[in-house]
Design brief:
CATH class of the largest domain: Alpha Beta
Shape: elongated
CATH topology of the largest domain: BirA Bifunctional Protein, domain 2
Number of domains: 2
Radius of gyration: 28 Å
Strand order of the largest sheet: 1-5-6-11-10-9-7-8
Number of strands: 16
Structural class: alpha+beta
CATH superfamily of the largest domain: Bira Bifunctional Protein, Domain 2
Distance between the termini: 45 Å
Largest sheet: 8 strands, mixed
Helix content: 25-40%
Strand content: 15-25%
């Protein structure tokens, strides 16, 4: 019997992993530059955390979560996103007593049962971050600038920032009544999801993806026109902060995001490339989420980006990631007596952080040379009885063909200074 990866999952092969390493390193570096530290959270949580945190009217909770009962009869869910778990950790570990803002980033796998398509998997990877304790628009602009700088360091172009405000619970409550008055004549002919959302959370109707209903949605009243004075001031502050650092943006009144916890600022970074249009990163403010999950009232904001979608976009834009080949030298053996010396040299080189390879397949000398040539390893050394007797070996630069004689008793020191 042959097994295959499950639908919606994918192996990340050694031939591609260097791209992931590059993206992870750059993302972590940018986050550190802004004072964010990494957090690692469990893969699964109590199901109620997501129902309360993400929102029981969202597609994520109602349709997409991987939920099961464990052997103790507890309802457990594989995390469909990162924010709820970070909020739980923030509360449980008493981080509210730390100096504000509390800044954390993460690199996680997440799980959603949804239709598999290019850039959308059932097990997928996310970069994200969360910041707690700051209620002003300056931190909104800060986390947007993190994404902007990250994209620039990766080399992405033609990425558009779209921003919106979905207000606070007070102004949104009034807006929901206005929205229901607008949709009431249309709702009976709309999709089942929209009919459900009409009663429970009419704002989510703005996010409807059904082509035949987009015109109805497009003409709906815009929440941004019904913001309270405080929410208007916050949005104006966000725009001023973005203008101050020179980050260009468009206001898109139809951005509501797919999760119920958002308040005020919401944003998306969207590709403008032909054939790859789509959201690469999205986020926003969630000032009521910590309290809703059992903590003290604490403002918060964050974002998440799909790594698969990010790398797909990078490939479409022709971005080439440098492949960091850690193996620097191949040491070929010409006799059994040389084997012990080669093993010791390889051990010492690796102890010094210098990658090396030698034959483990009992290849002939000719086959070793062929392997070394095809491997792309930049340096070669050959050790046989003559080299053992003379105490000297030649190190060959495979790109130039230049050979340098090196004493065996100084071989590791030479490699430390010349082939790293």
């Amino acid at each position: 019997m042959r097994f295959a990866a499950q639908k919606g999952t994918k192996d990340i092969l050694p031939a591609d992993i260097y791209k992931w390493h590059k993206a992870e390193k750059v993302f972590a570096g940018v986050c550190h530059d802004f004072g964010y530290e990494e957090i690692r959270i469990p893969t699964f949580e109590q199901t109620d955390l997501f129902a309360r945190g993400v929102g029981d009217t969202t597609d994520v909770v109602t349709k997409e979560m991987y939920t099961f009962n464990d052997k103790g009869g507890r309802s457990i869910t594989l995390r469909p996103e990162g924010t709820a778990g970070v909020v739980r950790s923030y509360i449980e570990n008493g981080m509210g007593s730390l100096p504000s803002p509390v800044r954390m980033f993460y690199n996680i796998t997440a799980f959603r049962y949804e239709n598999v398509q290019k850039g959308r998997m059932r097990e997928f990877h996310q970069f994200g971050l969360e910041a707690f304790g700051s209620e002003g628009p300056a931190i909104d602009a800060e986390i947007i600038s993190i994404v902007d700088i990250f994209f620039k360091k990766i080399g992405l172009k033609s990425i558009k920032l779209c921003i919106n405000s979905i207000g606070c619970p007070a102004c949104r409550k009034k807006y929901n009544e206005i929205l229901k008055d607008y949709f009431r004549p249309h709702v009976s002919g709309m999709c089942e999801d929209c009919r459900t959302r009409f009663e429970r959370n009419p704002l989510r109707m703005i996010d409807c993806k059904i082509d035949g209903e987009k015109e109805i949605v497009k003409s709906a009243p815009r929440l941004i026109d019904y913001l309270c004075d405080d929410c208007k001031a916050h949005f104006e502050g966000l725009k001023a902060n973005l203008d101050a650092v020179g980050i260009r943006y468009e206001i898109d009144p139809n951005i509501v995001r797919g999760l119920d916890y958002y308040t005020r600022t919401v944003f998306e970074f969207v590709s403008e490339n032909v054939g790859t249009q789509g959201t690469i990163c999205g986020g926003g403010r969630y000032d009521g989420l910590v309290e809703n999950c059992g903590g003290a009232a604490t403002p918060g904001i964050g974002f998440a980006m799909g790594v698969e979608r990010l790398l797909m976009e990078a490939e479409a834009q022709g971005i080439v990631f440098d492949k960091n080949d850690s193996v620097r030298i191949y040491i070929a053996g010409m006799s059994e007596a040389a084997g012990a010396k080669i093993a010791k040299l390889c051990y010492d080189l690796r102890l010094e952080g210098i990658g090396c390879e030698t034959d483990l397949m009992k290849r002939s000398f000719k086959a070793q040379m062929k392997y070394a040539g095809k491997s792309g390893i930049p340096f070669l050394a050959v050790i046989g009885d003559d080299e053992l007797a003379s105490g000297e070996v030649k190190v060959k630069n495979m790109a130039t063909g230049e050979e340098t004689p090196v004493r065996l008793d100084g071989f590791v020191e030479y490699c430390k200074g010349n082939i790293v």
